[in-house]
Design a protein that fits this description.
binds zinc ion, alpha/beta, binds 5'-O-[(R)-(carboxyoxy)(hydroxy)phosphoryl]adenosine
Length: 428
Amino acid sequence: MRILAIETSCDETAIAIIKVKKIGSKISFDILGNEIASQIAIHTQYGGVFPMMAKREHDKNIFHIFEKALKKANLYKLRVVNNKLKTQKIKELEKILEREHYLSNNFIEQITKIKKPKIDAITVTTGPGLEPALWVGISFAKAISKYWNIPLVPVNHMEGHVFSIFPKKDKNFVINKKEKIFPMLSLLVSGGHTELIVIKDWQKYKKIGQTRDDAVGEAFDKVARMLGLPYPGGPQISKLATTARRNESSNFSRSGSSSSLVRGPEKLELSLKQITFPRPMIHSKNYDFSFSGLKTAVLYLIRDLQKKDSDILQNDKIKKEIAKEFEDAVVETLVFKTIKAIKEYEIKTLIVGGGVSANTYLQKQLKNEVEKLNFSSSTTKKINIHFPSQKLTGDNALMIAIAGYFQYQNKKIIKNINSIKAKGNLSL
Ligand code: KG4
Ligand code: ZN
């Protein structure tokens, strides 16, 4: 069967098409198309994602991305328009589009020219995310589902991130349902979420912890802004922190001391010890996180430093050091709780997903700690760890297509498409 997936929950307009074949317990996936229009360049100018701006961009891009994906999948064919049929179809479409806030007349003009593609199910992200942004994908999905009479399947964005670890190559991959991978632990870290989820079996989720305030990606973005770095801040902070660590280890090997900044900007006589941020909730009994206090600690430090030298943020060494200490605090907290959960729930497989899973320091520290656990374990059972390929760490429609396939198999097809709504706070 072929599935078309639509993702517009935040700042990526994405459409993917996959072909799925089930042979016994093995399910093979062919990626026919996987297209993304990123809005990052636009949001960078404003220092973050504004929901209505994201919606406008999705509106602008979605049809183009849809056509691109159909063309890639060889499913794009134009047809001769039958005007009588067109008038009747337009009436139906107008009803859906009017109700669903997707008002582009252009859409009706364009869709009536395309021949019904060989797609067996349409799947769309219904939440969590920015509601105005989600509505664009949902309305689009409803309209094409109704117009071409193709079943519609809603998908939770977070379930998409869980499935994002499976595609390793560009074209195809296999999921073997008999593989002994459970219990699994999923650490989901993005701009909107920080969650630990125990997965007992296929699609059996139990959230054991989440952030009580800022998501980890959000904290990266906010701290980056404090340091005068552009949105999205995660990759920027990560780059600075990596350089700081590299410099530190080369200074260490040269002088036998890691305190490079003691001899740094003399005016401030800043020692490394002065920059140490808290590890919020690290020793709490639960698996919850909190990053807003950490963000405030960075803010206060910058304020104090600026009192001594208003140009302090011009100093690259200081910026790198703050980035490194911040990343250390975040990663240590995430790793500590993840490892604690692995032990308590006797986890066999750790999977990490979401934009922040691209962070190389987080990847390295998690791998190290899992390796230590495996080394000290008396049994031969080893814990496996999986990250998405770099391209799939952020939001994409391929992960929604895979999750959509599993939902379709569970007969989660929507009978009354008018009942599908955007749910900003949808939970797994
Ligand atoms: O999953 P995602 O693309 O979108 C959401 O659903 O939020 O995640 C985006 C977030 C942003 O906050 C971005 O700064 C962060 O992921 N991010 C990173 C890195 N790459 C992206 N954070 C830390 N280190 C990175 N290398
Ligand atoms: Zn996401």
